[in-house]
Amino acid sequence: MKRFAFIILVIFISACSKNENKKFVEQRSYMHTFVEIQVIAKNKNKVQFAVDKAFDAVAEVETNTSKFISASDVAKIKNSKQNEITGVSDYTLKCLSLAKRLSNLTGGKYDVTISPLVDLWGFGRNKTKRVPSEKEINLAKKKIGADKFIVLCDKNAVSTTVDNLDIDLSSVAKGAAVDAAAERLLQLGFTNFLVNAGGEIRVSSSGEKIWNVGIQTPKENVAVEDIIENDVLEIKNGAIATSGNYRNYFKKGTNTYSHIINPKSGVPVKSAVLSVTVTAPTCAEADAWATAFFTMPPVEAAQLAGTISNVECFIIERPLEGKNNFQFHQSKNF
User: Fold this and answer.
1) Of all residues in the chain, what percent carry a pLDDT higher than 90?
2) Residue 218 falls within a domain, yes or no?
3) Is the residue at 105 inside a domain?
4) Model confidence at 218, in pLDDT bands (50, 70, 90)?
5) 3-state secondary structure of 64
């Protein structure tokens, strides 16, 4: 699955502390969104140094994983020929390894090679949204599949089974960037922080500190403070990400086509699901699974989440006809 500009669904963030530490907050623009880092500490100068290094890590992930940067790893893969070995960064290698794993666990429903289909429907480069023919869809499907790239961990490299494979890591790269920033802060000795890249969040806490994260009501033009009642999560350490389906779509006749495309059928997912929120140990995992679960029926997604260690999901469906209340599904330990 591919994601472009998902909405920020995780909004309410705070920290509880009984000592004299202060919260330092800084926000910068990366990956077509705002990345915010909050650190709780005492020494402003040490915090600033660490935050700068954390943002450097975010920039490094973007530089290596963006298909719109000509020198990125995915751009190099796009320009490579069949069986050519392309060296990649650790960040790209981790993203592709995770993508392979999720593709296997979802029966191919999660697919980072789906760009030809996304472009075909007009959710990609040209933004000309249209309904393609069955012939066009079948031709595009021949160009995709996680079987078309091989991760060579021992060489920090990737090879492909076809020429010019179009890989898009937008469904995992923001999460990976958040993880990179978090790991940089931990390496520099900071253990109480939150990193947020447009709703992809990772937190770390020590002592009694807790981060509270609320899930925004999945409606167009919703107010920032409008969150799902009683669904504020208390998190000490871990990550959370949300994938939404109600702002990036187009209508043709009586049909509505969402930007979330099922790589198996080649057409946008037809579903009552409005948003999927996932908690996981790392933000890359939460980010990728939030997209993967969107391609599945809610009950199937919740069941699959229950089989994956430390991964939980919360799914919101639109109200039934004639009703006002959202429908909720969740894995057993959410």
Assistant:
1) 60
2) no
3) yes
4) low
5) helix
Structure tokens at 196: 């947020």
Lowest-confidence pick of 16-25, 85-94, 194-203, 312-321: 16-25
pLDDT score of 16 more than 70: no
Report the alpha-carbon distance of residue 73 to residue 75 in Å, rounded.
5
CA distance 281 to 302: 17
Q: Please tell me the total count of domains within the chain.
A: 1
Is residue 116 included in any domain, yes or no? yes
* String of DSSP letters for 197-212: ETTEEEEE--TT--EE
Distance of alpha carbon 203 from alpha carbon 27, whole angstroms: 16
Strand partners, 313: 278
Q: In angstroms, rounded to a whole number, what is the distance separating the alpha carbons of residues 106 and 214? A: 28
Question: Would residue 130 count as lying in a domain?
Answer: yes
Residues 6+ apart with CB under 8 A from 323: none
Q: What is the pTM of this model?
A: 0.88
Closest CA to 245 of 2, 6, 1: 6
Q: Return the CATH number at 145.
A: 1.10.3980.10
Side chain identity at residue 99, one-letter code? A
User: How many Cβ atoms from other residues are within 10 Å of residue 323's Cβ?
Assistant: 9
Give one word for 32, left, alpha or beta, with left for phi > 0 and alpha for psi -120 to 50: left
Domain limits for position 91: 73-160
Inter-CA distances, 241 with 16, 150, 238, 313, 315, Å: 22, 27, 11, 10, 12
The CA distances from residue 113 to 4, 119, 325, in Å, are: 14, 12, 36
Contact between 88 and 73 (Cβ < 8 Å):
yes
